[in-house]
Amino acid sequence: xxxxxxxxxxxxxxxxxxxxxxxxxxxxxxxxxxxxxxxxxxxxxxxxxxxxxxxxxxxxxxxxxxxxxxxxxxxxxxxxxxxxxxxxxxxxxxxxxxxxxxxxxxxxxxxxxxxxxxxxxxxxxxxxxxxxxxxxxxxxxxxxxxxxxx
Length: 150
Hints:
- The chain is mostly helical.
- The chain has a single domain, classed as Alpha Horseshoe (Serine Threonine Protein Phosphatase 5, Tetratricopeptide repeat), CATH 1.25.40.
- It contains nine helices and two strands.
- It has helices at 2-13, 21-28, 31-40, 63-70, 73-81, 96-103, 106-114, 129-135, 139-147, and strands at 49-53, 56-61.
- It has a two-stranded antiparallel ribbon with strand order 1-2.
- It is elongated.
- The N and C termini lie far apart (52 Å).
- This is Fem-1 C-like protein.
- Keywords: ANK repeat, Repeat.
């Protein structure tokens, strides 16, 4: 019924401490929950929220960014399959690819690049994916990005 659909939509898009259910499920690797809130509850895969990593709150993080930063490849694959924008940034202009480079998730880096992630987008400090992977000591990712012409 129409009223219950409206209630579900309100719940799925409600924010607690700046995060929606989809943002939290992506951050914490709950694949089945991600699928449910997207497929059944019709959550917007481009919604943004606040999420915390290592004590730092990231504002305006899209679901793909959360999954990429946390290293959850199956969720990254699912969201890309659903048509999410692979280059959608946080408020600090960090892309999902940059988040994966920062945390050393090479499998996610390769997947995102294969799905048209832009390796040259810099964050608000001017740091590119190559710069951040070098800074963090992720040799495999740095070599891969250099092979791509970064």
